[in-house]
Amino acid sequence: MKLSLKPHHLKRYKDIAMLFLKYGNSDLAEELELADGGDERKPEPPKPGQPAPEELADDLEKMGPTFIKFGQLLSSRADLLPEPFLKALTRLQDKVKPFPHEQVEEIIASELGIRISKAFSRFEEKHLAAASLGQVHRAALRDGRPVVVKVQRPEIRKQIAEDFEVLEEIASFFDEHTDIGRRYRFGKLLAEIKSSILQELDYQLEASNLTTLANNLREFPHILVSLPVLDYSSRSVLTMDYVSGIKITSLSPIAQMDINGDVLAEELFRPYLKQVLIDGFFHADPHPGNVFLTDDGRIALLDLGMTGRLNSNMQENLLRLLLSISDGDEAVKIVLRISETADDFDEAEFTKKATEFVSEQRNQTLNRQDVGKALMAVARTAAQTGLYVPTELTLLGKTLLQLEEIGKSLCPNFNTNASVRRNVAENMATRMRKGATPGHLFASLMEMKDFVGGLPKRVNKILDAVGNSELEVNVKTPDARHLLNGFEKIANRVTIGILLAALIVGAALMMRISSSFQIFGYPGIAMICFLIATGGSGWLIIGILWKDYKDKRKRKE
Fold first, then answer.
1. Which of 272, 270, 309 is nearest to 287 (CA)?
2. Which residues contact 374 (CB under 8 A, 6 or more apart)?
3. 100 by DSSP, 3-state: which?
């Protein structure tokens, strides 16, 4: 690894080295070493003389916006940091030092090509909120329309680019020369964080995200998404409708009595699960600073810099995971299917630990079960045993935990777990209806046609290989009797499948032969063959599913 000698790089090397020296012998390092070895223990209070988790957030803040954002993103990675440090880093979400108003004016004039006094009838110098990448000011357009203006920090792009050059060099060194680097793959983690930050730096992309989310959630009357003012927005300036309200977590007990908290909490969970499981595009940072209760009693979703996108396959897997989280065995199988493994992955250890934890959740009373906590625990166990779970899984776990906090603020007795289960079932039904469109059905029919048409050729190949003693099957089994039984079942099913396929092909050929004996207006013999084939196919499918069900029950017993 070749280190850069640029002055900024040298300063960053020193800052990061000091950070490592401070926390290298702390509880944080011990937790990571334990995770790397697969051991497990409960978090303890920091020992005398060791830095507290809160100090990590302070130190990252002193190092500047890049490291503040780095800390924010790490606060959602339960697979990387112990719980006390995750909680401490959440402070970085919306309590960051602002930059001077003079710089705000310069950036707006440069980006919009017009002075603040010309673009806005009113622009408040005091900021509403200051974050790692920008800060927000309240204003009004020339026609009196109230808005908020988010302005990107000056020189932030250059600073982040230089910081990531340093971090990439360090991550590469750890990945190549340390066991902990190979286990956690710091280079890949850093690439994910860099991609997320670069997206957040593009305010035009955020404006598009706001519009998309508002359209996706228009069916929810209690959900409000602040829309952008495109003529007053650019890559570094974003103007949005002003939302009058308060943070949901700031509600007083008296204020809670004046709202229908149970309905609002349910209305909050429904759109979030729809975003993840149906739309495949979701607000990925619903921390309390980004969720407001408006003056008219609605829930406003703010700040769409951090979003996530899911392909259909990942949506299906996350849906199955949420549905099966009460069944330890099935949940673990799904996590294994969607994850990558390290060379030293210990599948038995992961299965044992993850199944035990999910089973503990299943045995809790309904109001004490916590799906989000279970997902985060599974992610942490995966990291300890060498399994790389998708970022989407940890992000979903973090989102559910944040939604639980907000739901409890709206209604202290709200059963978040029951709401998740109820809405997941509803989303599953929606996905099934979505898949039953004419387009999907015709596509399935075309695939069936290709399968039936190519089946005789494939069967002939198999039979030729068998006849010429060329068929090879490589299996690993400790019991020859079970192997022979398995082959017998396969042979029976293949034989029945061939016969059914022959009936279908024969019926299709006889359809061209006119006959006085007809059924439903088609040649009778051909229709009889089709009906027999249909009945036989149904019987074969039911038999296979029933046998698989019985085998599954036996394994559980």
1. 272
2. 325, 357, 358, 361, 397
3. coil
**What residues have CB less than 8 Å from 294, skipping those under 6 apart?**
224, 243, 244, 245, 300
> Looking at this protein, which amino acid is placed at residue 310?
L
Helix, strand, coil percentages in the chain from 3-state DSSP, rounded to 5: 65, 10, 25
Whether residue 531 contacts residue 504, with contact meaning beta carbons closer than 8 Å, is answered with no
Separation of alpha carbons 423 and 175, rounded Å: 41
What's the predicted TM-score (pTM) here?
0.69
Per-position b or e across 414-453, b if 16+ CB within 10 A of its CB: bbbbebbbebbeebbeebeeeeeeeeeeeeeeeeeeeeee
* CA–CA distance, 283 with 217 (Å, rounded to integer): 11
Quick one: which of 61, 49, 193 has its CA closest to 130? 61
Integer Cα distance of 357 and 361 in angstroms: 6
Residue-wise pLDDT tens digits, 379-410: 888 877 888 888 888 888 888 888 888 888 88
Closest Cα partner for 289 from 276, 305, 310, 308?
305
Q: Cα dihedral angle (496, 498, 499, 503), rounded to 10 degrees? A: 140
Q: Where are the domains of the chain?
A: 247-436, 473-556
Max alpha carbon distance in the chain (Å)? Answer: 98
Cα atoms in the 13 Å half-sphere on the side-chain side of 338:
25
Residue 281's DSSP bridge partners are 309
- Does residue 249 contact residue 293 with C-beta atoms inside 8 Å? no
pLDDT tens-digit profile of 252-276? Answer: 777 777 788 888 888 888 898 899 8
Do 240 and 148 contact (CB within 8 A), yes or no? yes
